[in-house]
Amino acid sequence: MEGLLNLWHATGLANFTIPALVMMAVGCGLLYLAIAKGFEPLLLVPIGFGAILTNIPVAGLAEPGGLLYYVYYIGIDSGVFPLLIFMGVGALTDFSALIANPRMLLLGAAAQFGIFATLFGAIALNYVPGFEFTLKDASAIAIIGGADGPTAIFLASKLAPELLGAIAVAAYSYMALVPIIQPPIMRALTSEQERNIEMPQLRVVSKKEKILFPLVVLSLTIMFLPAATPLVGMFCLGNLMRECGVVDRLSNTAQNELINITTIFLGLAVGSKLAADQFLTVETLGILVLGALAFSIGTASGVFMAKIMNRLSSNPINPLVGAAGVSAVPMAARVVNKVGLEANPHNFLLMHAMGPNVAGVLGSAVAAGILLALVG
Amino acid sequence: MDIVSLLLQAGNLMITGMVGVFVFLSILIFAVKNLAKLAGPELSNNTSNQAASKSSTGVSSAHIAAITAAIAQYRTKK
């Protein structure tokens, strides 16, 4: 009888707690969004499954000695996984649209206002009882506005590891929701006439320029913002491997196998942070609200900047392309193209939007570097 | 009281951060424009020259030859 009782105490049924069950439901919810709705499936499948594994009673997968604990410790606590992903993103990124029209970097800079405005908002949220965000917490939350998963995870792991689960889930969920969040803001801030603006075709970019570009970016980062060199350095390495043309094998590995392997473990490690005691808090709700705010402000400030540039510049600039400044490559650029085509069926803005789009990746890496240098 | 000082810090960070991002990316714009002067036009000149030479000599004369041959064939058939 006693043996049976001991066996019963070793079952999951006897050890379930309500919060753990809620978190497993959250994990199933993420799996549903990924599989049925197609929301960032590459990340939400491992994150959702990781959330289920983490909350299994008795097994202790996310406690010292458990698999997920070590995956997190090796990959995210050290900051290695987001950086490896960033190298892959660099190898996947084509900068020619930006090199052809470098002024688009200003749009990538303007959209980072979403990050810094949200930082202010996160601190202001401390007036609501139940919220106690420090400056580090607020910075880690605000980086959601950079719309860049690896950057958000990297910064959160350095500044506020206890909020990492909520921040990563918010960042990836909102990136999947870009086609729903951005268009209403873009339409509200531009006139029909502005959305109609056609932009001149981009010039051809030489191979030499493409090879030198990552080296120029890296040397500027080394000189002015060494705190951003982990992110920018790996990004530039990936991009150089892509453009130099002599290490196609390495470039292919960085773009495919390596980024895929890292994504599996990154997702699982993020899922391991979705433990009930860390996720089921008021702060998570606050992070979700602030994340949406960050995306919206970033989109709006990008569009405003593009409007100003259109007024001042001799070459017409369609204000819609400013919305692509919030990185979220290439979704944001596709959204710009779609909204542009609604206004003018002959206006293909995709290539023009890719400039601010990749500028946004650099912008958010620079913003992360600034936050690390000032707050970290 | 504490929140007020945090807000001030956050505001300060907002201004420094935005200025930092803009200054950094402006320097990058300057650098990329210079990069285009150094490494860009050379290749675009070459391609435009090639395209021009092709259209003025090879391609157009071949086209003309083909068209005249076709016309001649059409006339002889009649």
From TrEMBL, chain A:
<feature type="transmembrane region" description="Helical">
    <location>
        <begin position="104"/>
        <end position="126"/>
    </location>
</feature>
<dbReference type="GO" id="GO:0005886">
    <property type="term" value="C:plasma membrane"/>
</dbReference>
<feature type="transmembrane region" description="Helical">
    <location>
        <begin position="317"/>
        <end position="336"/>
    </location>
</feature>
<feature type="transmembrane region" description="Helical">
    <location>
        <begin position="163"/>
        <end position="181"/>
    </location>
</feature>
<feature type="transmembrane region" description="Helical">
    <location>
        <begin position="356"/>
        <end position="375"/>
    </location>
</feature>
<protein>
    <recommendedName>
        <fullName>Oxaloacetate decarboxylase beta chain</fullName>
        <ecNumber>7.2.4.2</ecNumber>
    </recommendedName>
</protein>
<feature type="transmembrane region" description="Helical">
    <location>
        <begin position="42"/>
        <end position="62"/>
    </location>
</feature>
<keyword id="KW-0915">Sodium</keyword>
<feature type="transmembrane region" description="Helical">
    <location>
        <begin position="12"/>
        <end position="35"/>
    </location>
</feature>
<comment type="subunit">
    <text>Heterotrimer of an alpha, a beta and a gamma subunit.</text>
</comment>
<keyword id="KW-1278">Translocase</keyword>
<comment type="similarity">
    <text>Belongs to the GcdB/MmdB/OadB family.</text>
</comment>
<dbReference type="GO" id="GO:0015451">
    <property type="term" value="F:decarboxylation-driven active transmembrane transporter activity"/>
</dbReference>
<feature type="transmembrane region" description="Helical">
    <location>
        <begin position="282"/>
        <end position="305"/>
    </location>
</feature>
<keyword id="KW-0739">Sodium transport</keyword>
<keyword id="KW-0472">Membrane</keyword>
<comment type="function">
    <text>Catalyzes the decarboxylation of oxaloacetate coupled to Na(+) translocation.</text>
</comment>
<keyword id="KW-0813">Transport</keyword>
<dbReference type="GO" id="GO:0006814">
    <property type="term" value="P:sodium ion transport"/>
</dbReference>
<keyword id="KW-1133">Transmembrane helix</keyword>
<dbReference type="InterPro" id="IPR005661">
    <property type="entry name" value="OadB_MmdB"/>
</dbReference>
<feature type="transmembrane region" description="Helical">
    <location>
        <begin position="68"/>
        <end position="92"/>
    </location>
</feature>
Automatic annotation (TrEMBL), chain B:
<comment type="similarity">
    <text>Belongs to the OadG family.</text>
</comment>
<dbReference type="InterPro" id="IPR005899">
    <property type="entry name" value="Na_pump_deCOase"/>
</dbReference>
<keyword id="KW-0472">Membrane</keyword>
<keyword id="KW-0813">Transport</keyword>
<keyword id="KW-1278">Translocase</keyword>
<dbReference type="Pfam" id="PF04277">
    <property type="entry name" value="OAD_gamma"/>
</dbReference>
<dbReference type="GO" id="GO:0008948">
    <property type="term" value="F:oxaloacetate decarboxylase activity"/>
</dbReference>
<dbReference type="InterPro" id="IPR023424">
    <property type="entry name" value="OadG"/>
</dbReference>
<keyword id="KW-0739">Sodium transport</keyword>
<keyword id="KW-1003">Cell membrane</keyword>
<keyword id="KW-0406">Ion transport</keyword>
<keyword id="KW-0812">Transmembrane</keyword>
<protein>
    <recommendedName>
        <fullName>Probable oxaloacetate decarboxylase gamma chain</fullName>
        <ecNumber>7.2.4.2</ecNumber>
    </recommendedName>
</protein>
<keyword id="KW-0915">Sodium</keyword>
<feature type="transmembrane region" description="Helical">
    <location>
        <begin position="6"/>
        <end position="32"/>
    </location>
</feature>
<dbReference type="GO" id="GO:0015451">
    <property type="term" value="F:decarboxylation-driven active transmembrane transporter activity"/>
</dbReference>
<dbReference type="GO" id="GO:0005886">
    <property type="term" value="C:plasma membrane"/>
</dbReference>
<keyword id="KW-1133">Transmembrane helix</keyword>
<comment type="subunit">
    <text>Heterotrimer of an alpha, a beta and a gamma subunit.</text>
</comment>
<dbReference type="GO" id="GO:0036376">
    <property type="term" value="P:sodium ion export across plasma membrane"/>
</dbReference>
<comment type="function">
    <text>Catalyzes the decarboxylation of oxaloacetate coupled to Na(+) translocation.</text>
</comment>
<dbReference type="GO" id="GO:0015081">
    <property type="term" value="F:sodium ion transmembrane transporter activity"/>
</dbReference>
